[in-house]
Amino acid sequence: MRVVAKRIVSIADRYQDPRQVIELLATLPKELIEVSKVRSSRVRGVCISVPGIVREGKIISAPWLNWRDVDVVTAMAEAMQPLQKIHICNDAVALASAVATDAGEGDLSDALLLLLAQGIGSAHLRQGRVIEGAHGLGGEVGHMVMGARPQMAATHTFEILAGYQKFLPFIDHGTPIPEGLARLATLGSSPEFDKALDEWASALATGFLNLIHILDPKTIVLGGPLAVLYPRVASRVEALVAENLVHGFEVPPISVAKFGGDGAAIGAAALLRESLFDLPELPAI
Fold this sequence. Notes:
Elements: H1 18-36, E1 46-50, E2 53-55, E3 58-62, E4 67-71, H2 72-79, E5 86-90, H3 91-103, E6 110-116, E7 120-126, E8 129-130, H4 158-162, H5 177-184, H6 191-215, E9 219-223, H7 230-244, E10 254-256, H8 263-275
Parallel strand pairs: 1-5, 6-9, 9-10
Antiparallel strand pairs: 2-3, 3-4, 6-7, 7-8
C-alpha cells in the first residue's frame, strides 16, 4: 500500500476519444517501472480504475467521458508492450479496496465508501465484501436524482450538484485538478469561495440524508480528490444531516480516507494484488 512512483498526465480534450486515451495509458506502465526502479519481472499486471460502470473488462457506460461499450482490456492488450496482465474496475470499488486493505479485518463491517470527484461513485461494504446488486451495477449513487421530477435527472443529480465542477473556477489553469483541490483545502475565506462551500455542503447533506435513510451504514468514508475539502464543511454537513434525519436514525461517523486523490489508483493495485491469490474454480463433479 505504498506508492513507489507516480505520474499525472493530462488528457485535456482527448478524453472523448477512447483510442487516444488507451494509447496514452498503454505507455504509462513502462514509464512507471523505469521511474520506480522496480524490476519489471516483479510487476504482475496493470489495473485501471475508471469513473463508470464496468463489466467483464468493458466500460459499459462512463457519462463524464461520454464512453459506452468500450472494451478497454482488449484495446490495452493490443497497445501495450510488453504485455502485462490487465484488469479494469470501477473507481469507487477500487477506493473501497484500498480502504478495506488498509483497515484490516473487522473494521468495516458495514461501511459506505463515497468517491468524490467530477462524478460521485460509491461502494457499500458489508463484512469486507462489496454489495454489487443484481446486475453488478449497485453503487451508482451519483445518478441519484435530487428533485421531484424524472426530467431533473439531466440537471439535478447528486454528482452534478456535489461534484467538483463548482470549484474549478478557483483552480489555476494548467494545474492538475487533484493538486488544485488540495491547495483549495488550505485557501483562506473569500465571499465567492465560501458561497461555493455552502452550496456544496447543502448538496452533500441532502445526498447523505437519502443514503443514510436507504442504506443505514455504520460508517461513511470519503475519498477521491474532492474529499480533501470535506473538513472545511464537515460541521455544517453533519449538523444539516442531524437536523433532518427521521427520528431513530443517527448520523454515522464520517471520515476521509488517508489516500487523498490517489485512493482509486492505490485501490486498483490492491485489487490486482488480491487477484493473485484467487483460487482456481474447480470443475463441477
